[in-house]
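Q: Entry one of two.
A:
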Amino acid sequence: MIDIIHGIVLAGLLVSALYIVRCRDLLSAAISFGIFSFLLSLEFYILQAPDVAIAEAGIGAGLTTAIYIVAIRGTTRWEEVSG
């Protein structure tokens, strides 16, 4: 059962990372980064590292995502295409 959950979390990490790279809406990318960080903290917990999981959830998923959202509010929301 844990192998199935482990596989689902890893697939979610891959999907969210690909979405972050391909997304042109910066706010959506920042929220996807928060989801990525939360899934990463879940992965750390599955790998029996609860202290690292708590730190990743608090700093990675919470604080960093909030800082990105505040920074995006001060700029344009959409990435501009050059070329």
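Q: Entry two of two.
A:
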Amino acid sequence: MERGFYTIMAAQFFSSLADNALLVVAIALLIDLHAPAYLTPMLKFVFVLFYVILAPFVGAFADSMAKGRVMFVSNTIKITGCCLLFLATHQYFALAAYAVVGLGAAAYSPAKYGILTELLPPEKLVIANGWIEGLTVASIVLGTVLGGVLITPAVADMLLVIDLPFIDTGVDNALESGILLIACIYAIAAFFNLYIPNTGVDHRIPKKNPFYLIHEFSHCVRLLWADKLGQISLAVTTLFWGAGATLQFIVLKWAEVSLDYPLNKAAQLQGVVALGIAVGAVLAARWISLRQSVKVIPLGIAMGIVVMAMIMVKDLWIAIALLMIIGGLAGFFVVPMNALLQHRGHILMGAGHSIAVQNFNENLSILTMLLLYAALVWFDVHIYVVIVAFGAFVSIVMTLIRKWHVLNQSKEDSLHLIGEKKLH
């Protein structure tokens, strides 16, 4: 691997670590502010909202300058969101502050993935994605655990007695100390961003006319959905990220009902799923090539079926094993799909634009599924009913995607599309 790849990995690790720790702390903040239960999944909703709203613009922004610089600016925005969350005294102000962190994440993502296609040849993309996803998931494990630790009373009390000489931080409760520490982690990520190498790829200055950018983005969306391999990989990753975001909150509620776990312990079970994803991602990187990527689709069907088995689990160790299996299946099928989508997008329209299209579709899926989940919480639907409906939905949609791909293959052999020259 190129030397700069490891700098990218370090930057991604710390940024993702902070993202996941902040979600747990933000949930605890809403509870502390006596927010209604349906507002909890809305945290993730406002976080990803800018991914959808700014999709026509962030891709052009990411392709307009060195990716490391884009990532530095994005982490600075995240730090600003932390500062606003630090000052939050009302549930809706907390949601707005968390949305600012989402704004930074929306700008960060096209650069984070786009630089891989600039730095590495196509044959290394699955391996690189395996490492990036594995490391990202490791940061999810540690981040959710860190978030749970930061809201644990004993640890919070220890942080409160730590003070900086000659500086009044204004920290007077556990949640504020956690938010301040997370802001420091974002700052570490920003430091690594400064040392990400410039790949030498020509950067396009984005058009000042927003209508042109929207038109260009719409063209890129149509281009990727029309591509025989692009449409399949985009459909799979769109479903995966929507389901994954919803599963985060399902696990929290399921742990409360089935295992009688409080938030700080339930958050650690989220980390178990993430650990499984890391294992699956590493195995996929080792065993699955770019040309074999579409063969992993049946694992998505299996994942939905395994999710439904959660309703029968009452024992902690069985729960851990089941969550590991769910994560492993998810990681093994999403990494090759993600690599294939990046490759087709880079070939068709450029790295930044293709990742922006991917983010738009995936986060539109997240918004839709989180709204549905929030509605179910609003109507007080039992979590077991939600789990069965969720697992069945994932399996059915993945089955339909598989049939879609088989239909494409019956019309023409789509494998020759890997490696075609850029069309746009």
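A: Comment on entry two: The radius of gyration is 21 Å. The chain has 15 helices and no strands.
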